[in-house]
Amino acid sequence: MENKKEKRRVGERGIRVDCGDTQTRGEMGRKKIEVKLIEDRCNRHVTFCKRRSGLIKKARELSVLCDVEVGLVVFTNRGRLYEFCSGNSLLNIIMRYQRHLQGRSESPIDNDLQERSQSPIDNDLQERSENLIDNGSGAKVSEDLQSLVKNHESDETILVSLGKLLQTIQSQVEEPNFKKLDVTQMMQLENQLEGTLDKIKSQRIEAMIENECWTYSMDMAMDMFNSPSFY
Amino acid sequence: MENKKEKRRVGERGIRVDCGDTQTRGEMGRKKIEVKLIEDRCNRHVTFCKRRSGLIKKARELSVLCDVEVGLVVFTNRGRLYEFCSGNSLLNIIMRYQRHLQGRSESPIDNDLQERSQSPIDNDLQERSENLIDNGSGAKVSEDLQSLVKNHESDETILVSLGKLLQTIQSQVEEPNFKKLDVTQMMQLENQLEGTLDKIKSQRIEAMIENECWTYSMDMAMDMFNSPSFY
DNA sequence: ATCTCTATGTATAACTT
DNA sequence: TAAGTTATACATAGAGA
User: Fold this and answer.
1) Nearest by CB: A67 against B37, B93, B174
2) 3-class DSSP state for residue A39?
3) Count of CB pairs separated by less than 8 Å, A with B
4) In 3-state terms, what secondary structure has residue B81?
């Protein structure tokens, strides 16, 4: 891959080379273009291919050079997907993104740590599960569950609680002990997860349609989440 | 914005200009760098700022020139978020991404899993879910959790516990109260579920490869899936 | 779609202010 | 910490295979 670059022999490093047939090649070379929709379909597609790979390359470089997490998705107008992520899973980055949004949406003043009314369980579990990631034992789950039961009072915190529980499950899955499970058992678990997932998805989509939030509410939400002076 | 480019007077279009003090400025100019982590923190940060804005600019250009949807997120290692999207909402793009994932087929094994989830068990769940719609209350969750905590003793019961937990979540999802939740929250839950699912899947596949149990385990699994008492 | 090739537009590394 | 400068490295438009 990298070797391909070595093939460059002529014009290396921008040095001009007089080929002798400058007349016939006079049209060649990069032209300046306006940043607006390329009308010609063919040209547009060629440009898309080139720039897409360029963009992904840049994204990768940024993540490597600066040790940052980068997630990138591109949808063509015909629905084809191109993606890149610096880690193993774009989904992880998306999760992180949404957690980030949630954190910001809770209160305009993020530095104010007194958010008792929001979700005590949330913060509590968050901390503990983060601390427990590397010293895993089965007891961890019980602990988390116990505190959950105690703190689980109002309906408003249900989702948050369940979400955090899921995090706990996830770190549980990563533990060595989990590997001892039978393949069949794992598949059973997978099946349950997928079932739950399907339910939530259909409900969510239903809710979005009901609320007509595709065009309106989501935008409002994003306005809230987005600060104008972002970069 | 665009006007800034007009400021260039010297070295415009790459033409060399002898400033007279070439001696003192001999060190200037871009150097080639390796694509690997920049060790110097300060330098890394400067590079990050430059390249981040460059990347976002490229992303914007791609979306405009080629009429494609682009979503980009960058997390610094200290948790700061930078984002870009071609439309008005990154969440829309993320949702589109998730819908895309749902529709696409993965590895052969995963195809099997997906087929399976479309049939018998799914129907079973469907029925149960419908029956549970009107008798839900928050207390139920606590109950389930409580018994979970009690039963959760040895590593061997982890799977059972997790399974029960998922059941709890699932019935919770069916309750009317759940619909009050924010769409964003639901998506977060979805993402967490998917993350957990991915982890389990990869572990399971790994285990299957290790044990060379491709053939016989799948049969066992199919038996299991066809059992009505799965949940 | 992907590669080549030229010529040039742009991004950006190292420095300076 | 951010903005500006210089000189160069890299990306890519246009044309063709």
Assistant:
1) B37
2) coil
3) 360
4) strand
